[in-house]
User: Which sequence fits this backbone?
């Protein structure tokens, strides 16, 4: 982010800021804060010298409200997706998703979000710019969920359950991030779902549960952490018993998630957390030992709880 001090006339279009528009205010000296990343400008804030913040709307925010401009919105997201490449434009994706928290999608936009969210791997392949459309849409559905009603809520749940098991890793990540967004607004909703879904969940769905819970904003409440540890223990118990049935790749994906997530829970509740790690450290299962060893190696544990880490490590 950088700042500029300049005079801005209300209503002008700022071409250096992805064509944003100043909606209110009067001509005066202002401070402009431009938020950008490697892919370009994400948003612009204009702060008046008297301390009153002026509202800025990216032009794409107008496009999402009018089906006449949906093609422009699609092309805007595709062109700035960052794909193909190692990282998608997460800043733009989150900005797009968050726009639905306070302003629900119109019926036409709702249908477009579902259409994009349901794009298959053949239609939107991994690391192709087209993959950015379902990625953004799933995030948007998560951000919007608690404001949605009736049938829309059910459709969002169906999308989340489908994308948790998607063949594309980036789409699976969007499902986990959408769950995090819902959890930030209502952790109780995650508790209800995970308790209901866990028994019949496959490895990819379980990985999504773990990834969603391994989110620092959700771990500020001690009761939340205890729930996370309980879910992790149930998943580990089944994993040790080779349940649920899974391919080697599906089991690897779940294992990879468990190899970092548990350490976040243990950090917040070390007494119960290290007892959990001890329970599985004595296992003869190489996969379980790898999970425990990986969590113990995380700096959040080995720097803060060196004696406990050493004690559990001795059991491996």
Assistant:
């Amino acid at each position: 982010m950088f700042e500029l001090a300049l005079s801005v006339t209300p209503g002008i279009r700022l071409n250096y800021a992805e064509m944003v528009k100043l909606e209110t205010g009067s001509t005066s000296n202002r401070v402009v804060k431009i938020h950008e990343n490697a892919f370009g400008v994400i948003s612009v804030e204009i702060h008046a010298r008297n301390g009153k913040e002026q509202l800025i709307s990216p032009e794409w925010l107008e496009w999402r409200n009018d089906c006449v401009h949906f093609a422009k919105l699609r092309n805007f997201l595709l062109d700035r997706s960052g794909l193909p490449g190692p990282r998608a434009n997460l800043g733009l994706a989150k900005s797009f998703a968050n726009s639905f928290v306070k302003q629900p999608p119109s019926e036409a936009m709702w249908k477009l979000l579902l259409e994009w969210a349901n794009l298959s791997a053949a239609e939107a392949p991994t690391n192709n710019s087209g993959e950015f459309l379902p990625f953004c849409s799933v995030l948007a559905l998560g951000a919007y969920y608690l404001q949605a009603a009736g049938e829309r809520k059910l459709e969002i749940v169906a999308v989340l359950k489908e994308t948790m098991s998607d063949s594309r890793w980036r789409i699976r990540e969007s499902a986990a991030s959408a769950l995090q967004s819902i959890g930030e607004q209502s952790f109780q909703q995650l508790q209800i779902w995970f308790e209901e879904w866990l028994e019949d969940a496959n490895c990819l769905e379980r990985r999504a549960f773990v990834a969603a819970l391994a989110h620092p904003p959700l771990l500020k409440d001690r009761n939340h952490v205890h729930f996370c540890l309980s879910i992790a223990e149930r998943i580990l118990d089944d994993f040790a018993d080779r349940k649920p049935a899974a391919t080697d790749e599906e089991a690897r994906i779940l294992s990879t998630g468990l190899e970092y997530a548990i350490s976040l829970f243990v950090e917040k509740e070390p007494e119960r957390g290290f007892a959990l790690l001890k329970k599985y450290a004595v296992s003869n299962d190489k996969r379980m030992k790898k999970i425990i060893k990986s969590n113990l190696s995380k700096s959040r544990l080995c720097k803060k709880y060196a004696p406990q880490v050493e004690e559990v490590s001795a059991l491996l």
Observations:
- Confidence is low (pLDDT under 50) at residues 1-28, 37-42, 51-56.
- DSSP finds 15 helices and seven strands in the chain.
